Amino acid sequence: STMLLLLLLLLSPVGCPKTEPLSGSSQEPLFRGADRYDFAVVIPAGATECFWQFAHQSGSFFFSYEVQRATGIGNSRNILATASDPRGVQLGVSQHVRGQINFPTKETGFYQLCLDNQENHFGFVQVYLNFGVYYEGFDMEKKEPEERKELNDTLEAIGASIHKLQIHLFHMWRFYNFARMRKGADSFLLEANYNYVNWWSMAQSCVIVLSGVLQLYFLKSLFNGQPSNRQKC
């Protein structure tokens, strides 16, 4: 379902509605987008891929990435990642194999995340992404003052504890994704090294066999007698 929501988010706004629209007067059907995503994306050589995530005010936005593999000449694994607010103001930049961009959401709207594969001109890169937004506060704004008074201290304490536990579990999920990013990158690196060693060993074996054949050929040519120019009686 997460991948389905992402595909709907990336489609043209003419064909499908946006998640969490800023205006409630739209006639399009509404649906709520997920607060976080984790997936891998392939970016072609010299191309740029952008994603949009809706966030409310007073939230905490997190964005982390890891380049799992790169192809082509040069084989550069660095990628340029940028994050911008709904007005287009750049909030963070990272240009490494892996990185994080975290910032508070000071206004409500769609935040833009872009990945630029400018250093790889002849090959694609596969990047694992983990981004979204979470809210630390215990939301009681929508409750009426009378309803708030009816809640006793025990229920409020239970609610605050549950919310704190959810935040801790959420951060554990983030750290788990960091480990999964690294594990995926290491797996692709081991596979590339394995293929490199196999091809290099095969090439060296061919060179050794060829050199042996050439040595035998030249040794044999040394023992071949020269034809005599004297005429027989």
TrEMBL record:
SMART domains: EMP24_GP25L (SM01190). The keyword Membrane applies. It holds the Pfam family EMP24_GP25L. Coiled coil: none annotated. One of its GO terms (cellular component) is endoplasmic reticulum membrane. InterPro entries: Emp24-like, GOLD_dom. The keyword Nucleotide-binding does not apply. It is found in: Endoplasmic reticulum membrane; Membrane. Residues 1-17 form the signal peptide. Keywords: Endoplasmic reticulum, Membrane, Signal, Transmembrane, Transmembrane helix. Residues 48-133 form the GOLD domain. It is a single-pass type I membrane protein. Belongs to the EMP24/GP25L family. This is TMED6 protein. It comes from Bucco capensis (collared puffbird).
